[in-house]
Amino acid sequence: MNKPRVDAAVYAARRARLLRAMGEGIAVVPTSPERIRNRDSHYPYRHDSYFYYLTGFTEPESALVLVAGAASRAILFCRERNPEREIWDGVRHGPERAREQFGFDEAHPIDKLDEQLAALLENQPALFAPLGQDPDWDARAMRWLNAVRAKSRAGIEAPERIHDVRTLLDEMRLVKDAHELDCMRRAAVISADAHRRAMQATRPGRFEYEIEAELLYAFRRQGAQFPAYWPIVAGGKSACTLHYVSNDARLEKGMLLLIDAGCELDGYAADITRTFPIGGRFSRAQRDVYEIVLAAQRAAIERVAPGNGWNDPHDAAVRVLAQGMIDLKLLAGSLDEVLEKETYKRFYMHRTGHWLGLDVHDAGEYKRSGLWRSLQPGMTLTVEPGLYIRAADDVPAPLHDIGVRIEDDVVVAAQGCEVLTAQAPKAVDEIEALMRDAREAG
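^ that's the sequence the OP posted. Answer follows.
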C-alpha cells in the first residue's frame, strides 16, 4: 500500500501538546497488532489512530513512550532491520532511521520495551495508557508497575495514578489542524469523484458489486490506501437496512440506489452517502421523499457554525423530516406531537452526524458536564439525515421500500462551515443530468 506522507514537525508538535497536558509522568501509546485473517494470511495492516496521530509511523510492532516533566522525551520502540524478513514483507525503518526520519529523541528495538518501561516508571507520579483497549497491553502495564513496586524497599516509588491517555488525546483530535484538514479535503475530493463515477456506471441489470468495484477502483486509482469502511451499495428495499453490505443484488429499473462510501487517505476518512435512481430519473414519490431529506440536510448544515450546540443540526433536520412525514401521510398529528412522542423514529432512527477524522466515527465526546458541547472551528463532522420507509399496511403504496440518505463531510469554519464533499452531486436535476449524459455517452 502507498505510505502516508510524513511531516515530522506536525507530529512533534502534537507530542509536545500532549506532554504539556500530562504535566508529569510516562505515557505509553502502542500501535495496532497485525491480525490473522485465516491460516497464514493477514488482514491488510492498519495502524492505531492514536499512535499514528502522534508519530506518523505506520509499521506494526511499535509503541511510543513519552516522558513528561522538566526533561521531556519522545521515544519510539519499533522493529529492528531484518534482511531476511524484509525479503518477504518489505523494508523496515529500524530504530535509528525511524528516529532520524520521524523526529524522535530516542528509538529502540521493540523487544526492549518491557525492560525500559520498568526503569522509566521509577519515581514517576503517573502512567498514561489506553486503558481497556487491549487486554494484553493492560496486562503488560500491570507487569511494569509490579516490577517497580517490587523495588519499594530500596526507596523506589511506583506511579500512584493511572490515567487513560485517550481522554487527553480525544480533546486534541477533536479540533483538526491544517495538516489534517488538507488530508481530509483530498480524501473528500477522491470520494466525491468515486460517487460521480458510480452514478455514471449505474444501469438496470447490473449488480451492486459492480458499482462497489467502481468505487474501490476510483479510490485506489487516485492514491487512497483503503476504503474508510466497507461500502454500502444498497438497491431498492435494501436501502432501508442501515448497514447493508452484502452488495450482491441485481439493480432494477424503478428502484433507488443508496451508496454510502468514502476512502481513507493518509489515515484520514471521508464519509459520503448519495441516493439516486437506477434508471436515471426519480419517480414522483421518490422525488418527494428525496427532496424532504435534502431540505433536512440543508437545514442541518445551516446550523453547523461556531457557538452552536452539537445537537442543533440534528434538531433542525428532525423538524424538517417530521413535517415531511406528516405531509407524506406517514404520520398523523401535529408537528409538536410527532416531535414530543418521537413517532418519527419509525422512519428516521439514527442521529444526523458524527465526528470524522482518523476514524470514521472519530474521537471526541459529544457532551460535557451533561450539556451538548459547542461547535468550534476545526471540528469536523458528517451531516446525514435520511428516511427509511419499509412496506407496511399503513404506508402509502407508492412509498413502499424507499430508503434515502444524503451525507456530507463538514468542517466548522470561523463563520459557518465548509462542506468538504460538495463535489458529489445531490440536487435532483444535477443527478439526473449526470446519469443522462453518461447513458448518452456510452
